């Protein structure tokens, strides 16, 4: 905003209210020639442009919230992937263990040896 006010030849002042909000005041030069209509019109055009601009409040806060949401989504998806991966991995291990156990029992039956735990 300081660049804008400098560009149109006016001074600005920022004051912070008790509730923490910042207010900007534009001070027009009192020594300016009131007859300089061209500069007054140019200044009015610039001020109208910014007066009609859409004000986006708390842009930084909104970006922080968006980044936090993206991080949470990533972590949730990672945790789901881990659960799915290790569930499948554990099922494969159980299947392999169960298959090996059955194979050992079959071998023991065919050799006539006594089953362990039977």
Which oligomeric state applies? single chain
Question: What best-fitting shape do the alpha-carbon axes yield?
Answer: rod-shaped
- Averaging pLDDT over every residue, what do you get? 76
**Poorly predicted tracts of residues:** none
Spatial order of the strands in the main sheet? 1-2
Molecular structure report:
It contains three helices and two strands. The protein has a domain at 2-55. The model has no long low-confidence stretch (mean pLDDT 76). The protein has helices at 2-7, 37-51, 59-111; strands at 11-16, 22-27. The chain has a two-stranded antiparallel ribbon. The radius of gyration is 38 Å and the shape is rod-shaped. By secondary structure, the chain is mainly alpha-helical.
Give the SSE map.
Elements: H1 2-7, E1 11-16, E2 22-27, H2 37-51, H3 59-111
Antiparallel strand pairs: 1-2
Describe the structure concisely:
By secondary structure, this protein is mainly alpha-helical. The protein is built from three helices and two strands.
